[in-house]
Amino acid sequence: MAESARSWPFDPQDRPTKIVCVGKNYALHAKEMGSEVPRHPVVFLKPPSALIPDGADIRIPTEAGEVHHEVELGVIVGKRLSRASVEAAPGAIGGWCLAIDVTAREMQTAAKQKGHPWAVAKGFDTFCPVSRPLPATAVDPRTATIELDVSGEPRQAARTGDMVWSVPELLSYISSVMTLEPGDLVLTGSPEGVGPLVPGDSVEARLDGAVLLRHHVVARVPL
Ligand code: MG
In angstroms, what is the span from residue 173 Cα to ligand 1's centroid? Predict the structure, then answer.
């Protein structure tokens, strides 16, 4: 078993109970999606079964239509957090990671139009690549950079300081709804530059210039 499969978030003893995601948390991404920045964070869940480590293939279901990459800074929850103030929330940050919120965009758009949830569009197996964990002191979300290239072409590059809601504000808001447990993962939203992934692509994503995610994109064999 690979080293990455024995540690968070792949160790059965240390798996997230949930992956909490935030949408529309960068103004330019909300604009490219034709959306206004909402008054409260847009929160949704991805299933932990979607997690894959650095190096594993992203598998695109043939029935999913266009599938997009969304590179995001991830917060690893270190302590139980419930109804926390913005001031208290940072004390629960156990570490950081880099993640890709892989999204079946056509299915998500259709769901939005019908008022349906996004669980299918966001929830296919392999739709949540997550890097090795970094210590809490290793990343400053006010100044960090996240980048994603597809087959050597730069697609996304942003400063996490441009988030609409800061990490403490997100953790405070999410914890006002659902208790965050140690090991849970919070994805803080994608900056602009989202675009398609197709079989044959290679993906590289970086946090503060360090390459933390490398993936090949393959077609999922139909049922
Ligand atoms: Mg996202």
Answer: 17
